[in-house]
Amino acid sequence: MKYWYNVDTGQVETDDTRSQDATVMGPYDTHDAAAAALETARANTERWDAEDRKWSGGGSWDEESQED
User: Fold this and answer.
1) How far is CA 41 from CA 13, 15, 59, 61, 64, in A?
2) How many whole angstroms separate alpha carbon 58 and alpha carbon 52?
3) For the chain, which terminal residue's Cβ has fewer other Cβ atoms within 10 angstroms, N or C?
4) End-to-end distance of the chain based on CA atoms, in angstroms?
5) For residue 40, what are the contacts with CB-CB under 8 A and spacing of at least 6?
6) CA–CA gap between residue 42 and residue 54 (Å, rounded)
7) Helical segments of 1-67, H only
8) CA-angle at 44, arms to 8 and 36, nearest 5°
9) Contact present, 37 and 16 (Cβ < 8 Å)
10) Cβ contact 15:22 at 8 Å
11) Does residue 53 have a pLDDT over 90?
12) What is the model's pTM?
């Protein structure tokens, strides 16, 4: 069974209970993973932003592209 996090209601849903046309994140393999969906997404975004800053040398893409 797969689990989904419903962003609109803040509830975990299964394939059987998943709301139609709802804004959901997933699928996740466990109820706990789905319940932590927003926390996981936030941590991933912070990690990716740090990687982007490291890759670009701390500047933004727009600043670098204007230097050429």
Assistant:
1) 18, 21, 24, 23, 28
2) 8
3) C
4) 52
5) 33
6) 18
7) 31-35, 37-55, 61-66
8) 45
9) no
10) no
11) no
12) 0.68
Residues 6+ away with beta carbon under 8 Å from 23? 6, 7, 8
* pLDDT band (50, 70, 90) for residue 68: very low
Amino acid at 18: R
Residue 20 backbone phi and psi in degrees, to 5: -70, 140
35 contact partners, CB below 8 Å, separation of at least 6: 5, 12
Q: Is the pLDDT of residue 60 over 60?
A: no
For tokens 């997404």, name the residue: 41
**Tokens representing residue 17 in the block:** 């209970």
Please tell me the distance from the alpha carbon of residue 49 to that of residue 52, in angstroms, as a whole number: 5
